[in-house]
Amino acid sequence: MYEGRNYIIGGPTKFFRVCLSHDSLVNLYYTNFAFMQHHKYSLTELENMIPFEREIYLQMLIQYLKDEEERLSKQ
């Protein structure tokens, strides 16, 4: 009945807007600044990332920092 019809409402733009709606513009700038100053990313690298790719790297970095903090506290 519905075969052959495309029901794309908003497409990728809406998908990324919904998926990243928890991130504010201020938080984006703070995170970019931290990536650039402390972890030597360039602004071009950050801007060329797919939005969910940036989130993955951020979560990996947070986990790494927690692990390092735990390791240092054990010493």
Structure description:
With 75 residues, this protein is mostly helical. It has a domain at 23-74. The chain has 4 helices and no strands. The longest helix is centred in the last third of the chain and has 24 residues, at 51-74. The radius of gyration is 18 Å and the shape is elongated. The chain starts with 10 loop residues before the first helix and ends with a helix.
Helix content estimate? over 70%
- Strands, total number: 0
Number of DSSP helices? 4
First and last CA, distance: 66 Å
Biggest sheet features: none
Order of helices and strands: HHHH
The helix/strand class is mainly alpha
Strand content: under 5%
| Large-scale geometry | elongated
The average pLDDT value, as a whole number, equals 79
